[in-house]
Amino acid sequence: MKNNNRKGVTLWFFGLPASGKSTLARKVVNDSTGYVLLDGDEVRQTVANFNMDHNARLLHLSYMAFCCRQLNECGINVAAAFVTPLQRHRARIQEILNDVQFIWLRCATATCVARDPKGLWKKASRGDMPHLTGAGGEWEDPSDSALTIQTDDVSVDQAFAAIKERFALNKP
């Protein structure tokens, strides 16, 4: 399935749990041409449920960046959705995947807690997930990203329109 005419691109959605990463990555896959989804939730359910310490996250994210690079080299675009909480995680991804386009889905913690589609914030508040990013787990705002979207201020369609415009996505 190698496409010798072009390399693919990776749009890497990152942000707090429930900030909209999976939703917007899926929207890119469904509403534009030539993207596949690599979603942190699905990877953990299918392959392994890595723990939340920073070394395990770094290893997991390195594997995912490598997968994206392999797909990109075959001409396949990837919409990747991973929390990616620390600058050193994002720097490692950048080392592996030079042309990655980071999209920060900035969202107030209170909004993420209110959304909580998977019940993660509720588990964290009970003490069942003490290392959840944004609850007890560390988060670092990025020093730069290709695009930042304040997802508690816009609809999914408005956010997708910004992504589509910034990255010139084509409809299927």
Structure, explained:
This protein has one domain: Rossmann fold (3-Layer(aba) Sandwich), CATH 3.40.50.300. The chain is globular. It has seven helices and five strands. The chain is an alpha/beta fold and 172 residues long. The protein is 43% helix and 15% strand. 37% of the residues are buried. Strands 2-3-1-4-5 form a five-stranded parallel beta sheet, with helices on both faces.
Task: Quickly describe the structure.
The protein is of the alpha/beta class and 172 residues long. The chain contains seven helices and five strands.
Topology:
Elements: E1 10-14, H1 21-31, E2 35-39, H2 40-46, H3 54-73, E3 77-81, H4 87-96, E4 101-106, H5 109-115, H6 120-126, E5 147-150, H7 156-167
Parallel strand pairs: 1-3, 1-4, 2-3, 4-5
CATH class value: Alpha Beta
The CATH superfamily turns out to be P-loop containing nucleotide triphosphate hydrolases
**CATH architecture grouping:** 3-Layer(aba) Sandwich
Count the strands?
Answer: 5
Output the radius of gyration: 16 Å
Helix-and-strand structural type: alpha/beta
Q: Which spans of ≥5 residues are poorly predicted at pLDDT below 50?
A: none
The succession of helices and strands, N to C, reads: EHEHHEHEHHEH
CATH topology description: Rossmann fold
| Count of discrete structural domains | 1
- How large is the share of residues in beta strands? 5-15%
Helix content: 40-55%
How would you sum up the global shape? globular
Regarding quaternary structure, what we see is single chain
